[in-house]
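REQUEST ID: PR-0412
SUBMITTED BY: lab tech R.K.
PRIORITY: routine
TASK: structure prediction, single protein chain
INPUT:
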Amino acid sequence: MTDARRRPFRLLLSVVATAAGLALLAWQIADAGPALILEHLSNVGLPGFLAILVISGARLLMRALAWRSLIPEAPPLRQALAATISGDAVGNLTLLSLLASEPTKAMYLGGRADASRVFAALAAENYFYSLSVAVYVTLGTGAMLVSFANLPAAAEETMPSIAQIRIAGLVTLVAMAAVLLAGIWLAWRQPRMLTMLVSRLPGRRAQAFAARLQTFEAGVYGATAHPEARIGRLLACEGTFHVLSFVEAWLTLWLLTGGSYMIESFVLDTVSRVVKIVFRAVPMQIGVDEATAEPVSRAIGFADGIGVATALVRKARVAFWSLVGIVLLTRKGLSR
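STATUS: complete
OUTPUT:
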């Protein structure tokens, strides 16, 4: 199937996924109570939301600094940040997610850097980012299981979803352990997995593509080995990104409830990360984010609607930066 024929199919899938997400979101809002959710959201206020935007903007800056640290003759930070915002916008708004966001970042830079080196740096940075997410989710899931273990028996009897959430937490721990082990194995053996798979396909085109993949994979593994690579800076940026993510979650919960909840913020932020991983193909995780955050927030003791409100604030933040990204792409002149 050619790209021109795939476009209507992808558009249809995107529309269906978005419609299903909106229906799920509407059901969550109706279940929690629209008036109650509006009351929670009013506690955030414009100054609070602007603070959230500043923190989330700093998170995008950390990702830009991270992959920029692996590019020889790195582009200006302003260009790298604009590319990051634009790529994330495309990834958040389409079914293709990473398959669209990372090429968009490279295309945004245009002739400012060699395309193959930029792609290699992006792939290498995503490797480190994925490992850091696995560590963050592992710690957050552990905090969630501990917080459930400390709930009184009477509370557990009124929350039948806790058992299911515990099971999901254990499954998440196993999955993140597998990710970490796979990451360690990849760093140790540096296999040319894509090249090996494609080279087994028949035809000259497959073999030619396999040769290009071999060069690309070699570039990915070499992205951290050249003299200009700054691995320490990359790791510091990834760590700071996750710290800022926690701060944003804590601030959002503090604005919504008026209380300081450290562990609970960590738990809800972790749940959001897992949702983004599992439902990455759903544009902006519409509906599924709210449908997951609400039962977890109730299970750890929050009032009705807090989980949905937390997810809606996060959705507004994503929508804002996505709009900025689309404006940047339009000004850059990048088309479909």
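NOTES: The chain has one domain: 12-332.
REVIEWED BY: pending
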